Model the fold of this input.
Amino acid sequence: MALIEVIDVQDATGDNIVTRFPESGDADIKLGAQLVVRESQVAIFYRGGQALDTFPPGRHTLSTANLPLLHRLIKLPFGGETPFKAEVYFVSTKTFMNKKWGTKEPITFRDQVLKVVRLRSFGILSFKIIDPQLFVNKVVGTQATYTGETLNEFLRSIVVARLTDVLGENLKTLLDLAALYDELGIATKARVADDFAKYGVELEDLVLNAITPPPEVQAKIDERSGMGLFEENLGGMQQYQMAYAMRDMAQNEGAGGMAGAGMGMGMGLGMGFMMPGMVAGAMPGMRPGQMPPGQMPPGQMPPGQMPPGQMPPGQMPPGQMPPGQMPPGQMPPGYQGQPQQQGYPPQAPTAQPPAGVTPGAAAAGAAAGAAAGAAPVAADTITCSKCGNPVPPSFKFCPSCGQPVQLPSGTPCAKCGAMVPDGSKFCPSCGAPRAVQTVCPKCGVHVAPGSKFCPSCGQQLG
Done:
């Protein structure tokens, strides 16, 4: 049986964490053999299933000085070269990088915005062995080789379990996830540190590449974000979708017959229900419930238009006279005057003006009273202070009760002729500046600006 004089292990794959020498089990090792341990390795010497010593990187000669336990286990009858059965485990202490981890099934979370959402997560991690003898005793056992991928299968399960707990405690909504990647990675790394250490393993790095929902949930999120573009104009979105639906239906050659007719009827009915909202939403400045310009709510008439059968204010139905106005040819009660002589053809009697009223004013008042039955009361009609009935602007006495009319003080506007109250600088009717009028020094009548003689008494003005 050949004696082993040099013990050396090299990993060609780069993925072996533990390699046993020899691979088949224990072998006859010569006392005084050379043990070569590289910088990224640690050698654990076993004999009879018991770990005798751990050798750091370097070249070591196996002797009783290095292995004091051999002095009690073997005898030296052959000058120190007696062979003995033993085995050596080489443990790699390098950092194993780019080990992938991820969730096998989506994890369900409660989301404050999306209510319930399922998430997948994946990333990479790196680890190394910090306690070789503990790792061999608790994880490797009697296996000839132990790879990094085998260990990673176990470590990724721990990472996913701890990450699920961290997400449940810190994540409020999926929409805030982009700002929490670093925080979640640090928190998860701190959680798994103790889980790794009890196996003699240290987690070097933990990177969260992505935390995403399943594809069907992503499609719903994309649809919701697309709707957000039309939040300010939902009517425009409805028109947009309706136009594309009609285009697709027109391009579909198999949409004819009863199916196409039924679809057209349904679209027409839906369009009728949607049209008011689409029009209101498409017009800028319209609020919900507001009617477009020129359109009145049901039961409401536009300004100036009366419902059928209703007369405007001041206008009486045919055959009915306003309050205080007498029909043609009928004298007011207690009127002292002579009716107009009748001739042929018969003429309607004319009322005589009251005392103090000039014939011209009475004629104008009669004409205004006759026209009042067929036209609305003028805008500048004066209201009687005693009975409240309207008084034409040319009347000095109320035709209903005979109360003297108090005309508003002021001067006529030089532009439109409306009465401008004293103290006003502009005409309340047309807005023209009020011209300063001259007062006749003889009769006190207001004279229009630029007049050289008083129109009342003929007094020459300076």
